[in-house]
Write a structure and sequence with these properties.
There is one protein chain. It is elongated, with a radius of gyration of 21 Å. It has one domain. It is built from 6 helices and no strands. The relative contact order is 0.16. Helix 2 crosses helix 3, helix 2 packs across helix 6 and helix 3 packs antiparallel against helix 6. The chain is mostly helical. This is DUF3899 domain-containing protein. InterPro entries: DUF3899. It holds the Pfam family DUF3899. Keywords: Membrane, Transmembrane, Transmembrane helix.
Length: 123
């Protein structure tokens, strides 16, 4: 878990992962294909981070609460130990540090991607 706390070390690990994927999967070793591999890694982070941001914002809380209530009212076998009123909602299950982790890495890798795109199209 300590390795995840050092965000700059994780950026280096992500760039190393991008380089490894580049050498394993690229049909030609050029900047264009390296940018493609960096795109895959950075937008994975952005996608997960934005999904966590939507969940943490409470978008799915009402839907989840309604489904739990409906299931609790219509269930024939009631589990009295499992109360739908006290279960945590999805917005309460997203940790703020994980959200910051994914958003930071997604944005940082995307800025690197944009810098490489500027170099690619300038040359």
């Amino acid at each position: 878990m300590n390795i995840l706390l050092n965000k700059w070390l994780m950026i280096v690990i992500n760039l190393a992962l991008t380089t490894i994927l580049f050498f394993l999967l690229a049909p030609a070793y050029d900047l264009f294909h390296y940018i493609n591999q960096l795109f895959y890694i950075s937008y994975f982070y952005l996608f997960v981070g934005l999904l966590m941001l939507v969940i943490r914002g409470g978008f799915f809380d009402a839907i989840t609460y309604s489904f739990r209530r409906f299931h609790g009212m219509t269930s024939k076998r009631r589990d009295y130990m499992d109360d739908w009123k006290t279960k945590p909602l999805p917005s309460q299950s997203i940790n703020r540090s994980w959200l910051n982790f994914f958003i930071f890495h997604g944005v940082t890798l995307t800025l690197g991607l944009l810098g490489l795109l500027a170099i690619y199209y300038h040359a």
